[in-house]
Task: inverse folding
């Protein structure tokens, strides 16, 4: 069963990345701390008015998760480059997309945990009232995280191996993420406010389409990017 | 894999300089034509004249980015360096026209709307598009290895082009779900004639720019190939 072998490769790569992360924890802790710091800074920018904070909560939470997540994506390849591990990885048999998918899954778990922390702290700091439609809100966060990680993992494969990785990754990634951020923020804000305009559904469809389009495109293009 | 010892044929300029002079002259002529034939608009007065640079620049920008998509796909398919250089030339020229579109739009917006910028769907998505291609050009500037640069920028170019309709849709929704969409005015025929004439002239200018940029990039590549071949001790 060739396909099952590939899934095992995916799992092995994801497991390897997560083990490295779990054993040091330094990466996760500092990235999570940065996410919380961003939330506090947004709080300062918006002022202490509870109504204004509540209205901006969705945007602040998503942007904090984004800024923290960007650091995670480059890290995921940086550890590979330090001892030439990436070249070794490419010498193993199997299709390239299994490497990408493995890293994607590891990053998804990493960013997902960061997002959970940022959301919980954000709910407290921005005085958010948890809406009745919280399962739908959870779905929005999952779809948003998938899109973020798909493009983040893909662009980091290039940016982390260039001379200017710190600036290049956000420069490439942020404009590409505009539709995702607009959709995720708008849907979250609508659901937090009770979705009186019934607009969340359209945004969720856009999120799902975005995730699917770029997952397929990056799976196809990764082979060209990783071998060069 | 590209063979490092292979030579790279530098394209000849041929009649392109003549074509360049012709296309710039055509642009001047169509501008004068449009200015002389179009009466001042009822609402906008002479302000409508910016139509003849702003709208063609926006269309030319889309042509450039479509070229980036086509050449990038063909580069990944055939790995010919010419395609990579052509995609880069089109991206550079496209970014110029994109910036021009934005700046001209703002110059028009200040007297017409009273502000330099509104978060209108078209303005916002044009700005996002500009940033995507600034990223594309920055990526090229930071990578030395030609094959790596070619493949990576092709991937970024293709994904960027793929994102154009999605950005457009999301920004439109973002605006229309919260505020009224901006209204579209219908135009008299005489304005259309001037606009299309200028569009034609600007396409000529665009072709000339892309060609010259491609020639310059090709000369640089040929020099790199020659240096590489010498370093490897190959004969030329």
Result:
């Amino acid at each position: 069963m060739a396909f099952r072998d590939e899934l095992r490769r995916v799992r092995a790569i994801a497991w390897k990345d997560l083990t490295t992360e779990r054993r040091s924890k330094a990466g996760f802790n500092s990235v999570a701390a940065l996410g919380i710091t961003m939330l506090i800074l947004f709080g300062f920018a918006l002022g202490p008015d509870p109504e204004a904070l509540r209205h901006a909560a969705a945007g602040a939470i998503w942007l904090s998760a984004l800024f923290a997540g960007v650091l995670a994506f480059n890290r995921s390849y940086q550890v590979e480059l330090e001892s030439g591990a990436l070249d070794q990885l490419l010498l193993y048999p199997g299709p390239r997309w299994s490497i990408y998918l493995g890293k994607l899954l590891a990053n998804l778990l990493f960013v997902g945990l960061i997002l959970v922390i940022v959301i919980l702290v954000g709910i407290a700091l921005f005085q958010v009232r948890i809406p009745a439609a919280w399962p739908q809100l959870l779905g929005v966060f999952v779809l948003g995280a998938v899109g973020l990680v798909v493009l983040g993992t893909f662009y980091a494969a290039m940016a982390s191996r260039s001379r200017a990785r710190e600036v290049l990754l956000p420069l490439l990634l942020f404009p590409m993420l505009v539709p995702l951020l607009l959709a995720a923020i708008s849907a979250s804000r609508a659901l937090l406010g009770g979705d009186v305009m019934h607009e969340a559904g359209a945004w969720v469809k856009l999120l799902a389409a975005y995730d699917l389009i770029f997952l397929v495109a990056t799976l196809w293009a990764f082979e060209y990017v990783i071998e060069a | 894999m590209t063979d490092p010892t292979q030579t790279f044929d530098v394209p000849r300029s041929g009649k392109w300089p003549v074509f360049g002079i012709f296309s710039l002259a055509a642009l001047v002529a169509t501008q004068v034509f449009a200015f002389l034939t179009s009466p001042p608009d009822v609402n906008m007065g002479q302000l409508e004249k910016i139509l003849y640079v702003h709208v063609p620049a926006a269309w030319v920008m889309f042509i450039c980015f479509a070229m980036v998509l086509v050449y990038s796909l063909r580069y990944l398919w055939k790995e010919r360096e010419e395609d990579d250089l052509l995609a880069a030339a089109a991206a550079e020229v496209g970014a110029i026209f994109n910036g021009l579109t934005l700046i001209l739009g703002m110059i028009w917006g200040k007297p017409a709307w009273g502000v330099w910028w509104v978060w209108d769907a078209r303005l916002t998505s044009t700005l996002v598009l500009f940033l995507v291609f600034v990223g594309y050009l920055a990526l090229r500037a930071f990578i030395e290895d030609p094959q790596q640069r070619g493949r990576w920028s092709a991937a970024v170019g293709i994904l960027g082009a793929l994102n154009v309709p999605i950005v457009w849709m999301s920004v439109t929704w973002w605006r229309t779900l919260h505020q009224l969409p901006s209204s579209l005015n219908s135009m008299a025929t005489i304005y259309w004639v001037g606009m299309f004439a200028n569009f034609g002239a600007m396409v000529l200018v665009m072709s000339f720019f892309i060609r010259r940029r491609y020639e310059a990039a090709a000369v640089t590549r040929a020099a790199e190939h020659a240096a590489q071949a010498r370093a490897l001790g190959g004969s030329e």
